[in-house]
Amino acid sequence: MAKAIGVFDSGIGGLTVASAIKRQFPNRKIIYFGDTVHLPYGDKSAGQIQKYIKAISAFLFAQNCDQLVVACNSASSVLNEVKSNLPPFKRILNVIDPVVDSIVNQTDIRRIGIIGTKRTIDSNVYSDRLLSQNDQLEVFQLSTPLLAPMIEEGFVHDKIAASVIHEYLSEMPEVDALVLGCTHYPLIRKEIDAFYKGAVKLFEAPDLIVESMGGRSEDSVSEEPNTGDDHFYVSDYTTSFEQTAQQFFGAKIKLEKSNLFD
Ligand code: DGL
Asked: How far, in Å, from the CA of 218 to the mean position of ligand 1?
C-alpha cells in the first residue's frame, strides 16, 4: 500500500495546500501537522523554525509518510539549510519553487509584488530565486505580519480583513502580479482581488504545487491508492483549526492533539 503524504504548516494556512493535493489525488492519505503552539512562524528566527521543521518531519516520517510537503512559506524559506538532516523522504517539496517557476514563464509580467511574513520577506527568497531566473523582473517585497494571525483568528470576509488588507496593499507600488507568499493568504484571495479590482494577477502555491507533483511519473503521488483516513495533528488544539479543517475536508475529520512539543 502506498505511504501517506505528510503536510505541515504553523496552522490552518497549509490546509489550502493539503486540500488542493486531496482534490487532485483523492486516493492518497494525508497526514497533516498544524504547529499551532508555535504560530506565527513568521516572527520566529530561521534557527527556531528549522528546529520545528526537523521535529515535525521526523514525526511525519514515523507516521509512515514517504513525501513531505512544507506547506508554509516561512518554513520553506529556511528549508535548504536543513534538508540534508531530514529523514529520507522520497521527496520534499516547498511552496516557493512552483510559484517562482510559474511566474518566470509568463512574458507579460515585469513588475511583481511579493507579500509574506517577516521571515519570508527578510529571507529575500522570492526575489533571489525570481531574479536568478530572469533579471529583467522588478520585484517589490512587503511584509504583512498581521495577516496570518488575523486569518487564523477567523477575520477573513469582513471589514477588519478588508481594512488591514487596504492598509498594507496601499504601500505596494503598482505591479502586474502579486504573489500571495504565505499559505494563509489564499483564504483572503477574494478580498485581495477586490482591492485590485481584478486588475492584478494573483499567484498562490496550492494548485501550482499540485501541478509540480506530476502525473504518472516514477514518483507520482497518484500511482498507488491508499485507503486510510486523513489524519490531522495539532500541537495545540484551536477551534479555528478544527473549523477550517472541517470546511476543507468535511465534517468528520480525525483531529488529534500531538504531544510532540509538550
Ligand atoms: N502559512 C505560513 C506561511 O506560509 C505561516 C504563517 C505564520 O505562521 O506566520 O508563511
From this structure: 31
Asked about 182 being catalytic, the answer comes back as yes
Which residues, in sequence order, are CB contacts of 144 under 8 Å at separation 6+? 115, 116, 117, 168, 182
* CA 44 to centroid of ligand 1, rounded, Å: 10
The structural domains of the chain, with segments of one domain joined by +, span: 4-94+208-257, 97-204
Given this model, what pLDDT does residue 221 score?
Answer: 52
Level-2 CATH architecture, domain 4-94+208-257: 3-Layer(aba) Sandwich (3.40)
- Judged against a pLDDT cut of 80, whether residue 227 lies above it is answered with no
pLDDT interval class at 224 (50, 70, 90): low
Res 47: pLDDT: 98
Query: What's the CATH code, domain 97-204?
Result: 3.40.50.1860
CA atoms of 186 and 182, how far apart (whole Å): 8
Ligand 1 environment, Cβ below 6 A: 9-10, 13, 39-42, 72-74, 117, 120, 148, 182-184
pLDDT-wise least confident of 30-39, 134-143, 244-253? 244-253
CA 235 to chain CA centroid, Å, is 18
